[in-house]
Amino acid sequence: MAYQNPKSALQMVESARAAFQTGATKDVNFRMKQLKQLLRMYEENNTRIVEALASDLRKSRQEVEVIEIELLVHDLKNTIDSLHEWVKPERPPRSFANWLDKTYLFNEPYGVVLVIGAWNYPLLLTLLPLAGAIAAGNCVIIKPSEVTPASAKFMQEAIPKYLDNECYQVYTGGPSETTELLQEKFDYIFFTGSTHVGRLIHAAANKHLTPVTLELGGKSPVYIDNTADIDVVAHRVVWGKWINAGQTCIAPDYILCNKEVEAKFLKAADNVLKKFYKTNPKDSPDLCRIVNDKNFQRLSGFLKGANIALGGETDAKERFIGLTVLVDVKDNDPVMEEEIFGPILPIVNVTNAYDALNYINKRDKPLAMYIFSNNKRDVRLFLDNTSSGGVCVNDTAMHFTVCALPFGGVGASGMGRYHGKYTFDTFSHKKSCLYKSLGGVGEKLASGRYPPYSQSKTSALRMLLKYRKGISLRYLPHLTMFVLGLIASCGFKYFANTLFLNKNA
């Protein structure tokens, strides 16, 4: 398929770099204008966004408006309200040796950054990092997923109408176009997608020593014990698993529980599924479809030879897979060998929390972990003894919606983090600065570092550089006046010898 891009990858990156070098994006007022234009794009294109996602994934209006549009708007409004505060230089604490100096951390844009979006939430997972990159003062090349063409077309047509055409550009295409982009030098790359492709992105970035954020996935476990309210658990697990037909990077991937809890969950889940999607889920307007034939065939393969406790219906023509729960699942079953990313939920039996811990820790670190329990000791056991991108206790997926919490993976589930200020920080280089005065008392106090060296100078410097726990600058002005007075009355050499270098003491 031929993609219509107004410029080649090289031309696009070069024009974005030329725009960055003008300094336009470093102006906070310019950034604010672009962010407000982005907000206007969301508000004026609600219907078109709904139609694009219905075309790509048969998403219902509510899923689009709440999970894609509203999360984008919420995060963007928070960024707009906070931007002037975020861009201010930070003032890190000073050590004793730097009492007379000033320390700063400047939030500096990287330059020209590449944002590669995902197909499962094609707008949310592309435009949310875009907003943070704009806020941080970067120029951005946006690469939407080719798997969701209607959403990609919307971004290619809408973004130039609302944002600066040189600073923010959309490059569409498939793997070959992405490869062309990755041959160019970027100052930062933000990728959302599979672990397999993430490794390729990371390898390409390494050629230019380009820093990356990789938002990947993995098999996110759900532990359920017999202290949890199974009816509530069923509602929350079923919702978290089957929104977007399970095509969510933080969807519950498999359940860990004992046989008693399994029986209760199956009964409750069956009731919840009928409540959510009626007796014939395929006819429900609230259930998405599998994105393409390739993924449909991959998911259908997991059902062959499996013990299906609930669901299992498939329709290749409609790319429909029923809401399916598998039992008696073994470690070497195909469904347990990769991230499912679809409406299939295996249950693996364990005897207790320790059993579940061992099972989780033998696998790659997941993007999310879910714990359903009223036993605080066991919850703490999981929090202290497992590693995952994030944890949600007694719910699923909802931690993603809290912009005050950073979102990101660890190990095979990714690197880096974003949401709220964390997105701004991701796209900002923290440039450190020590600001010293020329001459004066500061120069006299530091003169011991200059040759010729001596034991007395070494002792004085070690005293200045000595770590002091919990030191407070509250009385710094008074101490400074005392030191200055002492130096003035005694002379620097006498002051150093008596205060720091009393060899006879």
TrEMBL record:
The active site is at residues 215, 249. One of its GO terms (biological process) is aldehyde metabolic process. GO terms for cellular component: cytoplasm. The chain crosses the membrane at residues 475-496. Gene3D superfamilies: Aldehyde Dehydrogenase, Chain A, domain 1, Aldehyde Dehydrogenase, Chain A, domain 2. Residues 5-432 form the Aldehyde dehydrogenase domain. One of its GO terms (molecular function) is aldehyde dehydrogenase (NAD+) activity. Belongs to the aldehyde dehydrogenase family. PANTHER family: ALDEHYDE DEHYDROGENASE (PTHR43570), ALDEHYDE DEHYDROGENASE TYPE III, ISOFORM Q (PTHR43570:SF16). This is Aldehyde dehydrogenase.
